[in-house]
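User: Please predict the structure of the protein below. I'd like the answer in structure-token form so I can feed it into my own downstream comparison script.

Assistant: Understood. Taking the following sequence of 491 residues as input:
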Amino acid sequence: AEARVATNHGALGNARVAGRPLRWLGLALSGGHQYTDAYRSDPSSAQTTGSARQLDTAGAAITFGTDAKRRLRLNVDYSQNRLDGTDLAVGGAIFDRTQLQEQFATSALFTQKSGRLYWNASAQYTQFREQYLNDQRQATALDSYEDNHEHQGLVTNTASYQWNERQRTTVGAELMAQLLDSARLSSTGYRARYSAFAEHRWTIAKTAAKAATGTATGISTGTTARDLLSVVPGARLDLDSQFGNQLSPKLALRWDPLPQLAVRASYGRGFRAPSFQELLLRFENPAVGYVVLGNPDLTAESSHSVDVSAEWRPNPQWFFSLAAFRNDLSNMISTITAPNPGVVGTLFTYANIDRAWTMGSEALGIWSPHELLTLTLGYTLMGTRDEAQDRPLPGRPVHRFTFRTLSTHSATGLSLMARGSLALDRTYFVDDATGTQAVTPEPFFQLDVRLAKTFTRHFELFVGATNLADAGDTYAAVLPRQFYAGLGGHY
């Protein structure tokens, strides 16, 4: 369980209880409540930058079976997310906006292991409803109401067979049915997708195992064999009633020339259909504070991706990784700025980019000199291009630095965590009366800190701050600086 309060009238509470009343029966119940007040970048304006948010969740699960050989798990979850905000029109009209999102999901998962065969089957049903009310103060002419529904069923079967210690084959099939009902559609939308997939893992080479030998001290000097070279080919076939058919092959390699070094390389073709939110919804993301409008004319995105990476752990105190990647995309689903006539502020929507690519490299280093300190540093260099318009993709920083430090002291039960990120050279494109203008906002720096103290093994008292540097701009508006305190516990 956890409870906390924060500035900006924020509050959070959640709890979970789980156990086995019988050896073969497991039960779990969970629930939570979260509230955050609305905020304004300009206190003198009636318009809210971020909406008030109230999120309530509840869930339950029941498990039959005691081990992985045969197990059945049933889940049911419900969430309700309400957002209340205010919009200001150019002419001075004020609109009170309420958005209510509800999701109900239930699923069943059955797993069975028999010898070298492992099989699992799952079925899931999800219902999503979003209601949107725009109410003009002291008038009704411009009032609007939308009610969107999505029903989705998903059935999956997967089987894996371990031929020997070097080879394993996995095959599966999937059926998805989706029903969309929205005022934005001329009729109820129906979509079905049939999928089949397979992959084979083959360890081509292993190091030789040395025989264990005794010594005068009784310590064995033997070593066990380890994988030296592995290959994983695979493919997935999607037959989509709305977005067409797609064959997506993939190939992954792993080479471990040394016990401390692993080298990976992979190629894959991807396929992604637009989500319900990308197609239909007009919603606000409370974590970043801007409005996004769905686009029902979106088509599916396809891609070709290549990446190479290496991981090196010279000793328990140090870890390094380096990666390079390239993605070529067709009909890329991207977020763009859109004209927002009659309303103050920036509106974002989705669009397909005919041809685009992203490429870059990532570096990560972790240093743990002792149990009191762990320091993580990361850097990403990213290049992007919208080939149709011959310009960078909007909102993708060229340089991004990240860090995280964690210090713990087991004797006193104190821990201190700090994490942050710095994004440089973001570019956005805004349409105005003179045409399309490129805008490069200031560097974007975020910082979070958290200090905690544990009492016995069951309770923790904590304080912290989010967005301590109070970052935020028109294009990446985040919640303002917030301080919080709370108590967590488990038994």
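That's the full token string. DSSP finds one helix and 26 strands in the chain.
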